[in-house]
């Protein structure tokens, strides 16, 4: 079973769109370790798809490398 839970923000391991996890479960024959994801495309149209957990990762926002210098 995957470590993903409803409400998590994920993306494909290859990158791409941020998606919200809507459900996790057995979606055989597509995937026995499936993650149903929901997102909005560039035209603000709701999309949803079931992905195998092995091709997803938790989304981590890029950090902004600001450096504070105190004098």
UniProtKB/TrEMBL annotation:
Pfam families for the chain: DUF2158
Protein origin, superkingdom: Bacteria
Protein name: DUF2158 domain-containing protein
Organism encoding this protein: Janthinobacterium fluminis
